[in-house]
Amino acid sequence: MEHNVVGRFAPTPSGRMHAGNVFAALMAWLGVRAAGGRLVLRIEDLDPRAQRPEATRLLLDDLGWLGLDWDEGPYYQSERADVYVQALHTLEERGLTYPCFCTRAELHAATAPHASDGTPLYAGTCRGLTPDEVAQRARTRPFATRLRVPEEDDPAGRIAFDDLVCGPHTQTLACDCGDFLVRRSDGVMAYQLAVVVDDALMGINQVVRGNDLLGSTARQIYLQELLGYERPTYAHVPLLVAPDGRRLSKRDRDLDLGEIRAHDAGPERLLGRLAATVGLAEPGEQVRAEQLVERFSWERVRACARESVVFQA
Ligand code: GLU
After folding, report:
1. 156-160: long-range contacts at Cβ-Cβ below 8 A with a sequence spacing of 24 or more?
2. Ligand 1 within 6 A of 60 CB?
3. 179-204: per-residue pLDDT in tens?
4. In what helix (H) or strand (E) does residue 163 lie, and over which residues does it extend?
5. Average pLDDT, rounded, for the chain
6. Is 18 in the pocket of ligand 1 (CB under 6 A)?
7. Cα(175) to centroid of ligand 1, in Å?
8. Model's pTM, two decimal places?
9. Which domains does the chain have, with CATH numbers?
10. Considering the chain, what percentage of its residues have pLDDT values greater than 70?
11. Which of 27, 213, 220, 248 to probe ligand 1 with, by most ligand atoms within 8 A of CB?
């Protein structure tokens, strides 16, 4: 058995958990429990504008109802600004960042190539500003902070990793995202920086999360390398999609835990259906989370699905 696995569940409290969030939480929990490891709960309430009152309390209550316990935390990102600022200073002092004055409209208007998945790349508008230009603009405009990524042909910007679910992956920062934000112009730290600092300081060595974050992984690994942190193992679990291929989201009210808990006495039906999508339960079987621990392995998950799995509402 693999010892000393330290995993985490890191929800953003922007609304009630839906079936897709529960699936990611269940996989993170199983990844740790099946290895006899430790689970950290971290509430990603970094952005004050994205918070919903009550969401955190409901989240903790929903995890309890599901039987998904944790060993450490909850930690709150809103209380950890000083460690993010310290990491940002380290990057700034080494000349790896630059201030970006682009407004949302300017970013939108700039013609830049697009990454393979259609995300616009930063056009580099503020990359070459002189210290004088920076000083002048900073008098009247708030600025964000971007991290300079290596040029396309520089091997330092080619990030390769082996995902427990998705297999080997290589991303080139200059082509997949370009210079990316580490601090927003309203002063809020970017998710990419906060998550890397937290995972490192909390000793996380296994990151389990939804496949929608696969594209962030290269940026996070690059930040880990710059800051001298260990690289965790990654497992990007499939997203749940409706039978018509549409991704489930918080808008599907019938799949949020408020609705589910109003109809189901316990979590067994939901957990059974989620486990069945990756072959850990028979169709129609009702299970408790602990019953899945001995059935779980990353090989089984990988054999069933990569990017998405169909979930019947
Ligand atoms: N807070 C993110 C979310 O709820 C997850 C971040 C992560 O797992 O790295 O989507």
Report:
1. 157/222, 159/217, 159/218, 159/221, 159/222
2. no
3. 999 999 999 999 999 999 999 999 99
4. strand 158-163
5. 92
6. no
7. 23
8. 0.94
9. 6-80+195-310 (3.40.50.620), 82-161+173-192 (3.90.800.10)
10. 94
11. 213
